[in-house]
Amino acid sequence: MKQRPIEIDFPIEQVNEIAEREAHAKEKYRPIYFIHKWWARRLGSVFRTIVLYSLLDKNAKVLEDDGRWRPVTKEELEKPWLLYLKDVNLGGKIVLDPMMGGGTTVIEALRLGCKVVAQDLNPVAWFLVKKMVEPVDIELLKEGFKKLENKVADEIKQYYRTICPHCLERYCKIKEKNPEAVIKEVSQGLRRTENPQELYEKYRFKDKEGFFERDKNIFADTMYYFWIKEVPCLNCGAKVPLFRGYMLAQKRDKSGYHVICPDCGSLFDVKDYKKDVRCPECKYEFNPNRNGNVEGKYYICPECGQKSVIVEAIQRRGKPPERLYAVEYYCPSCNEKGYKQADEFDQALFEKARDEYKKVESEWLGKYVPETKIPAGVKTKELLNHGYRYWNGIFNERQLLSLGRLVKTILEQNVDENVKELLIIAFSEALNFHNLCCEYARTKNHLRDLFARHAFQAIINPVENNIWGTEGGRGIFKNEIEKILKGKTYNISPFEKYVNNGNTVEKQSKIKIEGKIGDLFNGNGNIHVMCGDSSYLPIPNNSVDAVITDPPYYGNVMYSELSEFYYSWLRLALKNKYEHFQSEHVPNSAEVIVNREQGKKDKDFVEGLTAIFKEANQKLKKDGIMTFTFHHQAEEAWGAVLQSVLNSGFYISSIYPVQSESSVNPHIYLKANVRYDMVIVCRKRETKPERKHWSVLEDEIYFKVEDELKRLEKHKKNLSSEDVFVVTIGKCLEVYSKHYPEVYKGENRVSIEEALSSIREIVDSQLMHTRFNQVASETDIPTAIYLFYLAGKTSISYESLNKALKMRNLGVDKIISAGLVEREGSQLLVLTPLERKEILESKRRENFSVIDRVHYLYCLWKNDKFFSFERTLSEDERALWKSDGVFKALEYLGEVENDKTYSDIMKVIKDRW
After folding, report:
1. CA 84 – CA 509 distance, rounded (Å)
2. Cβ–Cβ < 8 Å for 864, 254
3. Any idea what DSSP says for residue 600?
4. How far is the C-alpha of 403 from the C-alpha of 422, rounded, in Å?
5. Contact status, residue 268 vs residue 261, Cβ threshold 8 Å
6. What is the spatial distance between Cα 363 and Cα 372, in angstroms, rounded to a whole number?
7. What is the full DSSP assignment across 733-771?
8. Pairing mode, if any, of strands 285-286 and 277-278?
9. Measured at the alpha carbon of residue 339, what is the angle toward residues 337 and 345, in degrees to the nearest 5?
10. Which parts of the chain have pLDDT scores under 70?
């Protein structure tokens, strides 16, 4: 059977060069993917290459710049990468994706002239992909948004106003009034009025600046409201605000910090929030960094000193209330952005919104606002532990009023149905940024969304966003509309980004992304999108040319649990139109995942994935291939995937490492330093394999891995032990599967578990041994241990590190005593450079290891003491600090930890020292 290009080779170097940049700015490479959140979505550049290399043959055509189609050339067939930037039509070949998720396969296959059959169990994924591919009239979409804006924007924005302190000062000076009296007057007026907008108009004034007179208003737009949860002390009953510290935000010009006085609540600026300060209002002295009431999972009562567990207090006393304490604003009148203490008006405005919501709550619940319970789950557990029971409970009343009003208006709009559904998508995506699980990135001055990680985090210091939006602000509704417009414009006029001489270049494409939904096996349309369990696919057997998919990552991402958040709202808008949204919850009984809360274990994952792969095998033509990507650090996860492949009648014909989205993604990345997905290519097993002895296969695996690592190291010099492990385990799967079940040690068959357990030995005793010794000789042993086993991680188990070091006759105790890690039970917590600062300052510098020097330089840089330290060094001392070992460690850490500080330090040392 003739091999497909992907079985012969895969352009790892070229793809990784593009993919690494795409991973840092995904929304700029494929805007259509980002009209709505989906978790662990794969990179478009990788899947474009997978589709191209899986299906390219002599029937493909290429669209030239003059608009004429030409046949693919012999050279292009031999080197498909030549076609990556070209408009290629693969001749309507049919691609099946039975686990379509965020739709990467769907989009990339359509772009290459394929027809697509795609299915997912999750209704949110189904609706998202449907809206991604369906064409829309951009002008109608703009008109629909304008109608919506005219109808509801002012109604929402009236609840996101605050008094600008700068304009209030000018107003009071001109009107000869007292600022406190004006705030009280305005607050009382707000409580009396039915229409806040009328009140806002009363406080316009003329302000003469030089020769010009300007119209101003004391009211500014709110960007963010800052709330703090208050838990009662279990001993004395005092309310304890759960502040970890009192630094509110870094100043935008980076000249200092805004801090909160814990005594009177006033805001003031300091140069260094880690030093003791004195409040200028009440003279209270405190340390904004150290004097918070929260330490890890505990809170300490400032009145009686009682130390209690936050979750235990919440479970005993119920979900704690939030108190509004600060506001970030933008004032159109004076063009100022700033922070202020929440005042009486801010409290009154929230109360006004709360009262308005109470009036409509009974009518809106279950119609425009969800009333579904939060189901028990691995990821939802934290919400439940913090007292949340219903999805509407993670929003405050102002958010529910504004979101309910917004979705109600969308559903009542007299616009094209396709446009209406895209407005619903924009609304759903905005939810990620408008809930009480959002927090503030204090050194970046913006909100961090709910799904900044693949989890639900119960935030003790939540931030409320301006739903419609103003100047600046993340995730505001009007910006979500812009994302939709960019995404759908990309469909009409797609482009491809690539790297040329180190620069990112964009090339326009001519083939539109246009999904015509229909029964493509009867000549209708080019895409068939279904929602359901993919162990059954209602399409003909032997009908698809390739299966290209991205299965769940074992137990890493809990798709059904996470999507419940969106589903609870989408269901209200879509249940009367689509049967997939009639169930109260996202269906999960057939979800392929390891999830202890659902009672799903390794064997359930294998059975579920096997059922889907078996069905895909039935639908695949005899000469077709199945290609999928996988990413995990655990041997048992890889074993489960291999077992599923083998049980469903496939073997692995080729496997390749490619750049993963996780190199910059904390969701999966921080669990282990794995920067590569494996592209796994499978064939139907037609004949009984040849019997092989495991020792022969071990040698084959070793040499294949060495060749692959050399390819990767040309592009990315510093491979971690996990990188090497994943590449090795991939090659083990490929070699083992080709001979399964005829793999023997003596007369005994080698099981999948035995094969995989042997791989770790190959990695540690052979592949990593040489690399470790080389780095140790260039630096020192503690540095080599840190770079190989600790860099890029927050923790590692004592047992696994001890096992790895024992193979080198080294002990963990040396690493603990060096202050690189701290032991906490069975885990070793990896200390950051800043966490090591006091340890490093207590050491004699002449006794520093290379990693000590690098971390010391990092601390100096972060504390603005680098250049003063530089001036104290003699020429001989500088030579010690700019050794090759230091440069190697700086380069490695900059790459592995994705922290530009290391490369900045290295550049300064090279340029100046």
Report:
1. 11
2. no
3. B
4. 16
5. yes
6. 15
7. HHHHHHHTT-EEETTEEPPHHHHHHHHHHIIIIIIHHHH
8. antiparallel
9. 105
10. 661-674, 716-718
Angstrom CA distances, 495 to 35, 65, 104, 487, stand at: 17, 14, 15, 12
Give the position of tokens 């009071």: 172
- DSSP for 56-92? --TT-EEE-TTS-EEEPPHHHHH-GGGGTTSEEE--S
What pLDDT does 660 receive?
A: 79
Closest CA to 349 of 397, 392, 404, 394: 397
* Run of H or E residues at 55: helix 44-55
Sign of CA dihedral 117, 118, 123, 126: negative
Question: What pLDDT is recorded for position 758?
Answer: 85
Residue 73, pLDDT score: 97
DSSP 416: -
Position 550, amino acid? D
User: Rounded CA gap, 346 and 640, in Å?
Assistant: 55
Judged by DSSP in three states, 882 sits in: coil
Q: Which residue(s) pair with 439 in the sheet?
A: 448
Dist CA 38 CA 428 (whole Å): 12
- Structure token digits, residue 474: 């993340």
Q: Which residues are within 8 A (CB) of 715 and not within 5 positions of it... i.e. 6 or more apart?
A: 12, 13, 16, 17
Letter string b/e over residues 734-752, b meaning 16 or more CB atoms within 10 A of that residue's CB = bbbbbbbeebbeeeeebeb
The pLDDT of residue 659: 81
Q: CA 881, 882, 888 angle in degrees (round to 5)?
A: 110
Give the span between the Cα atoms of 104 and 682, in whole angstroms: 19
Sign of CA dihedral 884, 886, 889, 894: negative
Cα angle 871, 872, 878; round to 5: 85
The residues, ordered by sequence, that sit 6+ positions from 488 with a Cβ below 8 Å of its Cβ are 32, 35, 136, 138, 141, 422
SS (H, E, C) 443-470: CCCEEECHHHCCCCCCCCCCEEECCCCE
Question: Angle at Cα 410 formed by Cα 409 and Cα 412, nearest 5°?
Answer: 65
Whether 6 contacts 54, CB under 8 Å? yes
Cβ atoms of 341 and 162 within 8 Å: the answer is no
Q: What amino acid is encoded at 441 in this protein?
A: A
User: Beta strand 495-500 with 61-63: parallel, antiparallel or unpaired?
Assistant: unpaired
Instruction: Give the max Cα distance, the chain.
Output: 99
Q: Could you identify the residue written with the tokens 């040499």?
A: 703
In the chain, the amino acid numbered 315 is Q
Q: To which residue do tokens 């009908």 refer?
A: 543
Per-residue model confidence (pLDDT) at position 661: 65
In the structure encoding, which two tokens stand for residue 352, read together?
A: 């006004």
Do residues 26 and 34 make contact, with C-beta atoms less than 8 angstroms apart?
yes
The Cα 834–Cα 899 span in angstroms is: 13
Rounded CA-CA distance 175/161 in Å is: 22
pLDDT for the residue 879: 85
Q: What angle do CA 605, 109, 65 make, to 5 degrees?
A: 160
Distance CA 888, CA 897 (A): 14
Strand bridging mode 527-531 / 115-120: parallel
Q: How far is CA 383 from CA 397, 575, 810, in A?
A: 18, 26, 42
Label residue 141 exposed, middle or buried (CB < 10 Å: 0-12, 13-18, 19+).
buried
Helix (H) / strand (E) containing 681: strand 676-684
Q: Give 40's DSSP letter.
A: T
Best CA proximity match to 786, nearest among 836, 859, 733, 845:
836
- Tokens 């000789």 correspond to 777
Which residues touch 259 (CB under 8 Å, ≥6 apart)? 246, 247, 248, 267, 268, 269, 270, 273, 277, 288
Structure tokens that stand for 783 in this block? 């540095």
Q: How many residues does the chain have?
A: 913
Within 62-178, residue ranges assigned H as helices are: 74-78, 104-111, 123-133, 138-157, 165-175
Q: According to the model, what pLDDT value does residue 663 have?
A: 44
